[in-house]
Amino acid sequence: MTDNDPGGMDILEIMEYLPHRYPMLLIDKVTEFVPEKSLRGLQNVTINEPFFPGHFPDYPVMPGVLVIEALAQLASILAWRTVGLKPGGGANIFFAGIDNARFRRMVRPGDQLILQAVLQRQV
Q: Is the whole-model pTM more than 0.70?
């Protein structure tokens, strides 16, 4: 990224941390990294997303399960960066679960999905 944004990551850097590729790579940019604390990122949601033609075609809405998947991807980047490693050598990070998920509003084409992962504990 730039000198003014040392914690950010562009898509090429993100792909170094995630095995996901189109259509399952759901993070476009990391905008902020606070070491051992949090990571903030985004997905620019467009009408060209592959799920929109089948998920309420007359009123396209991003499926909630994909919003959670995007958050899980962001959280895995936080985990890798926290331990100072990148995937490889058989090491993987998997999403194990989520408690009390709540959606405050629908995600529609043209929206920018802003996500934040916060490290609560390190094992």
A: yes
